[in-house]
Request: fold
Amino acid sequence: MFHTKKTERADFSTVAGVEQQDVQRGKPLLCARLDIEKGWLYPSSIRSDPMKIILTAALLTCLAAVAYGQKSARNDAEFKALSDRYFAAWSSLNPDNAAPLYAKDADLIFYDIVPLKYTGWAEYDKGVRGVLGGFESLKLTPNGDLKATRRGNVAWTTVTFHLSAKLKSGGQMETDGRHTAIRERRGGKWLIVHEHFSAPLPG
Reply:
């Protein structure tokens, strides 16, 4: 792409730190021009051919799109696995299985349907055991509408799900719900720092 050229004249006195007199003596110089107004460095072989500029820009755009698509696919697969693990953990009716998915900061807020909210994992763990104790079985099935958005070490996911439960009292429960989680990457793991459960009002 770059080549050397012997020239008798330079466009300006200093090009990439080489004095004009050095250029005139024929010392090797990368054949490039510095656009002072825009601050860009163009190889002359490209600058002299607009079609090469267009093709180069198109190629770079395609490569960027492919890289973004691959990264997005990896993120989708990663958060789908986390979501599946989440619903399976709570379906076991054992909070110990869900505990590794949560950050343990004492001031974190978790919104539930009943009760209204928990503050910190310790309160969440204690409270949810009482709620789950009323179920004979529980099955939480996520729908295929998971959406994950990542910004650095923070990500948030939304998904709807179906709850099917058998109560120890003999009743049966069937309902749909919504779940939103905010996760933070800590120590190489995505941990939930906030979540929000909700269910539509009976129609």
